[in-house]
Structure to design on (738 residues):
């Protein structure tokens, strides 16, 4: 039997090695491919995101890579140095699904970059602008995606309902909402359900950007829950379906939209505004600007663009049937207009764009455009610049030479400029965002209210798991205490031996439950690797359950084995389980301490600089706190130099030391006046502690832990194999006929 068990264990080891080699080869191929793509993007200057985009904190990322499959646009993220990296930045449009799918909050959505800033109204975390009482949401605030715009509108409405006293407004409405697009409609619906008075003003027709979409345009969005109505939208929906659903919501909730009213100015102050419109003055306590950028489309800046044949919007392809049409632009709106007109089959369509490639558009649209061009149904003019427009033709420079193109209509889709004049007149200041989150002050280590709530919920979940785990272990120990404490020979003579031995009813029962329990651990890797399961529950909850099961499994298995190992299979299972759990705990709690680079001195300076900046932001948090000396000691402990010891010893001590530090943090909770203030302090101090550890052990961390994931995944396969054989043998011996 021992020889058979040894052979089975050897086969399992071979499978694990093959799995490890395959994993390493696959990962290296992906990293090499992504490195080539990223280099090409840099060479073509397509590596800079257009607006809202993710940034990955590689000092926190544990390399789970669940974010790679999350984006509806495809593989926008790639892999570099074992962590996620924004590779196709030119295709990123800020869905934010990658951030939601990160189990350790290593991804944040930011506006602009250091190379290319984005000018937007300056707002705080509740979208209140520099002018008190005036909030900015939706496209005007940089949130072009429908789901993000709706979420902002709902968040702003909730905030306004919380801070506005009931009654006392006199003739003034609680809120005037400017713009009836997705953000404005969501704000109005939420205020209506909260019982607040409002006026929803729209200079055109309700729907905003949605209304101006081309007919039958397919919109990629995500469902959002509207108070009083329910879910609205789906992952793929047409313009007509979207407007129909919003129409049903407006009718059911009885939201009134005042169409054909343009806002010309805002006077007064917070709590007593006078909103000037083309149909009179409206008194309001608060104002929400939810208007988009379409009111000021970007012009070409060439002679003749004032002609009537030049339009800056597109809704219906059929009106261009049989005509000679030039579409100007390189984004999705321009491509979709050109595609729809070309598919009529009766028009002469050309697309002009100043760039050599259409890097700003979705891959699906580029593929359609290429197919139409190759079929001769559309002419691509790349790169080209419009020089002059006449009634019958367009003069342009195409690939270095001048040409004249016979033309009846020009559709310009080159973006829009924010209504700076209106914003300036309204007292709303603009700010250039360079890789910062909306609501963050310049240079601030920002933590949003939403993130703080999520962290508090996760802490409660972890506390629940700790109590549940302790209860399970205590119950198992209580049931078998009289047996487990006996020596081996004494157990054989004990009346409890028949039930509590591994092959006994209790031992088998615990083993079966433990097996099912352990197999549930594979739900997390299945969840994160399956694209169709993306969005099914919070990925952080899945990871926490994975860690809980992994930590509890060896403890429960020990009770099944009655704390003995009598054969090679059982020993192999126990050893593999221990290594799998150990590498898993390293990946979850230790790998985040690994700096993101390989020992470059200048990068160490960056980490040190981040440490000093963060330490300077903690000081204002202590102002006015009770028992200031206790908090000072806590900060001093988080920033003190790490004692000189070996890296291995430091890594072994760090988890327990971290738990003690978190307990000390919990004990000073009452010194803060509010939960929000304490949560910000806690997050900042824990970040300081992490940076302090990175600085101390910068040189050796990454090399030591680089391949922990290979060991974890490969030994999990080994574990499943030997578990299966072990269970089969145990069932045969325990319940067989012989």
């Amino acid at each position: 039997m021992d020889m058979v068990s040894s052979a089975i264990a050897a086969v399992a080891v071979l499978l694990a090695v093959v799995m490890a080699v395959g994993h390493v080869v696959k990962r290296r191929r992906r990293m090499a491919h992504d490195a080539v793509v990223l280099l090409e993007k840099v060479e073509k200057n397509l590596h800079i995101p257009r607006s809202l985009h993710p940034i990955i904190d590689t000092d926190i990322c544990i390399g789970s890579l669940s974010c790679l499959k999350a984006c509806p646009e495809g593989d926008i993220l790639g892999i570099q140095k074992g962590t996620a990296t924004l590779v196709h930045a030119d295709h990123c449009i800020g869905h934010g699904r990658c951030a939601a799918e990160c189990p350790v909050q290593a991804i944040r959505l930011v506006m602009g970059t250091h190379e290319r800033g984005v000018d937007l109204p300056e707002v705080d975390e509740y979208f209140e602008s520099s002018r008190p009482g005036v909030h900015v949401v939706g496209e005007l605030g940089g949130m072009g995606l429908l789901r993000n715009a709706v979420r902002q509108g709902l968040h702003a409405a909730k905030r306004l309902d919380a801070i506005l006293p009931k009654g006392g407004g006199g003739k003034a409405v609680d809120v005037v909402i400017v713009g009836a697009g997705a953000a404005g409609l969501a704000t109005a619906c939420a205020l209506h359900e909260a019982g607040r008075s409002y006026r929803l003003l729209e200079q055109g027709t309700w729907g905003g950007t949605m209304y101006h979409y081309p007919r039958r345009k397919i919109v990629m969005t995500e469902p959002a829950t509207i108070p009083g109505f329910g879910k609205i939208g789906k992952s793929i929906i047409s313009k007509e379906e979207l407007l129909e659903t919003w129409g049903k919501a407006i009718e059911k909730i009885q939201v009134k939209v005042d169409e054909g009213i343009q806002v010309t100015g805002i006077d007064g102050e917070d709590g007593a505004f006078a909103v000037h419109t083309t149909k009179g003055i409206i008194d309001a306590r608060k104002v929400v600007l939810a208007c988009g950028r379409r009111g000021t489309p970007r012009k070409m800046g060439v002679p003749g663009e004032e002609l009537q044949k030049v339009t800056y919007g597109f809704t219906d392809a059929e009106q261009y049937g049989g005509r000679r049409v030039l579409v100007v632009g390189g984004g999705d709106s321009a491509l979709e207009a050109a595609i729809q007109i070309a598919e009529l089959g009766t028009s002469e369509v050309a697309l002009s764009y100043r760039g050599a490639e259409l890097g700003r558009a979705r891959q699906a649209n580029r593929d359609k455009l290429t197919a139409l061009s190759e079929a001769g149904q559309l002419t691509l003019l790349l790169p080209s610049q419009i020089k002059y427009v006449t009634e019958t033709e367009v003069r342009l420079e195409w690939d270095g030479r001048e040409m004249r193109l016979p033309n009846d209509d020009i559709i310009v889709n080159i973006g829009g400029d924010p209504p700076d004049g209106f914003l300036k007149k309204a007292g709303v200041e603009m700010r250039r965002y360079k890789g910062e989150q909306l609501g963050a002050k310049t240079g601030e280590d920002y933590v949003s209210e939403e993130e703080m709530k999520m962290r508090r919920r996760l802490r409660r979940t972890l506390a629940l798991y700790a109590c549940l785990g302790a209860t399970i272990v205590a119950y198992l120990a209580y049931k078998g205490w009289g047996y487990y404490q006996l020596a081996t020979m004494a157990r054989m003579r004990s009346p409890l031996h028949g039930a509590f031995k591994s092959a006994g009813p209790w031992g088998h029962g615990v083993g079966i439950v433990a097996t099912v329990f352990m197999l549930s651990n594979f739900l997390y890797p299945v969840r994160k690797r399956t694209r169709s399961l993306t969005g099914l529950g919070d990925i952080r909850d899945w990871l926490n359950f994975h860690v809980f099961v992994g930590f509890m499994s060896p403890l429960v298995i020990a009770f099944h084995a009655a704390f003995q190992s009598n054969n090679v299979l059982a020993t192999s299972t126990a050893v593999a389980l221990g290594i799998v759990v150990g590498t898993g705990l390293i990946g979850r709690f230790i790998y985040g301490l690994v700096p993101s680079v390989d020992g470059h001195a200048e990068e160490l300076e960056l980490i040190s600089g981040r440490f000093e900046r963060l330490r300077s932001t903690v000081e204002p948090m202590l102002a006015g706190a009770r028992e200031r000396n206790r908090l000072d000691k806590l900060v001093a402990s988080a920033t003190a130099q790490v004692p000189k010891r070996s890296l291995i010893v430091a890594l072994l001590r760090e988890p327990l030391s971290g738990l003690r530090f978190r307990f000390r943090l919990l004990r000073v909770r009452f010194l803060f006046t509010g939960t929000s203030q304490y949560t910000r302090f806690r997050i900042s101090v824990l970040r300081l502690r992490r940076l302090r550890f990175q600085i101390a052990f910068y040189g050796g961390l990454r090399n030591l832990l680089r391949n922990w994931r290979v060991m974890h995944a490969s030994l999990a396969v080994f574990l499943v194999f030997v578990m299966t054989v072990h269970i089969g043998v145990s069932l045969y011996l325990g319940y067989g006929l012989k």
Observations:
- The chain is about 45% helix and 15% strand.
